[in-house]
Design a protein that fits this description.
This protein is an alpha+beta fold. Helices cover 25% and strands 37% of the residues.
Length: 358
């Protein structure tokens, strides 16, 4: 049964930095990502929710259970909260086999009833009698996760779970972990500053910066509909430029940006000075001026810079303002793009997001 987690806490440090979080969510089996720059307070918030750190003031509640209340002087320890916490270094016992690591501190009855299911779920049957030193990074991670999940936690906390794994293995392991978490149906709070991890693993997202929760919502909503310029910068919106709303008619917003006129579809009332946000992957590039594209916004410009970024190519276009497009290497080659050449950039109205400029 889904239960609400509500937290309104402040945690201060001698340096003057503080984490001030006010949030609530339901334990519905989803993966919730705590996302933000390094040093933003993500791990501190996670540890306060898990009971590994004590806030200076505030309240943490899980359903009808009070986990922390500074006024009532209540502070329930981690193991009594019934949560699971996976540390960055996995903290496996080097002298114990995989099986004994997973069942450590469980009763014989619990181990007998649960071990085979968890071993099968995390595909650890072939390594169950091995020691941690002989395992790969991904195998060690799955063992640590099995040890946590076998205790059937109310919530699973993951703190940068892929930081100890080399980059080449992360993509495969991310996919495996998402399947495992969905199969186990335990609500997960996952800390990361990596955009790819947030997008590939998360259902919902809490964005934190400078110790403050700036936005909560579905992952796509936060990444594509940031509430302010700071959030837009953190989630990596490639083009954020000032504009001015000049007309609103039948759900279509007209915005002047430099010498160009753009059109946006906005569900909320917006007027006056705004920031225009456009994601690079939402831009279609064409060499031909005449096109059958249904995009309402068509901008003619000149390529200022081309940057190869692995399988993706970043194209910066001067079309009265600087517009950044992201295309595949195949598209880049097929279009024979070059710095200094002219190009047409098309953007659908629903792909342009407006933020009030205050």
């Amino acid at each position: 049964m889904a239960r609400e987690v509500a937290a309104n806490i402040i945690k201060r440090y001698p340096s003057g930095f503080r984490v001030c979080a006010d949030l609530d969510f339901h334990t519905d089996g989803s993966v919730m990502v705590l996302f933000g720059p390094s040093g933003s307070g993500k791990t501190t918030l996670l540890r306060c929710l898990a009971g590994l750190e004590r806030p200076d003031m505030g309240r943490v509640q899980f359903g009808s259970e009070i986990w922390f209340d500074s006024d009532a002087r209540i502070s329930v320890c981690t193991h009594k909260r019934g949560v699971g916490y996976l540390f960055q270094d996995y903290a496996l016992f080097p002298h114990l086999t995989v099986t004994k690591n997973i069942t450590y501190n469980l009763s014989r009855k619990e181990a007998r009833e649960r071990l085979e299911d968890i071993i099968g779920l995390l595909r650890l049957s072939d390594v169950r009698d091995r020691f941690p030193a002989s395992l790969s990074g991904g195998e060690r991670q799955r063992v640590a996760l099995a040890r946590t999940l076998i205790r059937r936690p109310k919530i699973l906390f993951l703190d940068e779970p892929f930081s100890a794994i080399d980059a080449t293995a992360r993509e495969q392991i991310r996919g495996e972990i998402k399947v495992i978490l969905k199969g186990f149906q335990t609500t997960t709070l996952l800390v990361t500053h990596d955009r790819t991890e947030a997008l590939s693993l998360g259902d919902k997202l809490i964005l934190i910066s400078d110790g403050e929760v700036l936005q909560m919502g579905n992952v796509d909503e936060v990444f594509n509909r940031p509430v302010n310029q700071k959030v837009a910068s953190i989630v990596g919106v490639e083009t954020v430029v000032p504009g001015k709303v000049t007309a609103i008619s039948e759900g279509l917003v007209t915005v002047d940006v430099s010498s160009e006129r753009l059109f946006s579809v906005e569900s909320k009332d917006i007027s006056g000075d705004v920031f225009v946000c456009i994601r690079g992957e939402d831009i279609i590039l064409e060499k031909d001026v005449a096109s059958n594209s249904s995009a309402r916004n068509r901008l003619r410009g000149r390529i200022r810079k081309i940057a190869l970024e692995g399988p993706i190519v970043r194209i910066i276009i001067d079309c009265g303002f600087l517009l950044t497009a992201l295309v595949t290497k195949q598209s880049y080659q097929e279009l024979a793009l070059a710095e200094g050449s002219e190009i047409t950039a098309s953007v659908k109205a629903q792909s342009i997001h407006l933020i009030p400029r205050v």
